Amino acid sequence: MEVRCSLATIFFTIYTFYCGLLYGATGAVINEQVVANAGYDVIVLSDIQRVQLKNGVYDPGTNPLEDENYIYVELERVKFSDLNGDGMKDALVVLYASTGGSAGWINLTGLIAGGKEPIQIDPLFLGDRVLIKEIQIPAPRRVCLKILFHGPEDPSCCPTKRGTKCFDLVNREGKWILEGRH
Predict the structure, then answer these.
(1) Is the pLDDT assigned to residue 72 strictly greater than 70?
(2) Which of 4, 28, 136, 159 is a Cys-bridge partner for 148, taking CB atoms 3.0 to 4.6 Å apart?
(3) Measuring CA to CA, how many Å separate 130 from each of 44, 65, 148?
(4) Per-residue b/e over 123-135, b at no fewer than 16 CB within 10 Å?
(5) Among 53, 55, 71, 54, which residue's Cα sits nearest to residue 63?
C-alpha cells in the first residue's frame, strides 16, 4: 500500500509540474472577456487616468456636472493579433473616453500576453472624435489605422479627412509603447 501511495504521489507531482510547464509557461491568455474586463490607463484632457472596465464599460455612476473627475470609458474596437512577435495572441484596443461634455477622446492601446497578467501598451491619444475605419497589423510590431480626421472646415461632430497612421510597437525599458511613423 505504501508503494502505491508513493507512486501516486510521484505521478501527481510529475503531472502537476508538467501541466505547470505546459500551461503556466504560456502566461496570460488574452480573449474578448479579458479585454472587456481589464484595467486601462486612458489619456483624457492631457492627464492619464486608470479605469477598470466591466463588460467593456467604465461608468462611475456619478453625475458629470457634479463630479469634476468624472470619466466614462467604453471599449470601441479590438483587433487580435500577435503584436510583439512572440507567437501569442495579443489585443490592440481602441477606447472612447468622455468627461461628460461633447468631446470623445479616442485612445489606442492594447494588451500583450505572455506574463502572469496581460501588460498594457501605453495609451496613445489619437484625437477628439476621430473615427477609426480599419485596423491593419501587416507584421508583428507594426500597426496601421485608416482614420477619418477633422478637416479645416469640418464640424467637431463629423470628421471627413481620410488618412492612414502607422505605428511601431517598441519595448522601452520594459514598457510597450506605440511610436508614430511617417
Answers:
(1) yes
(2) 159
(3) 14, 25, 6
(4) bbbbbebbbbeeb
(5) 71
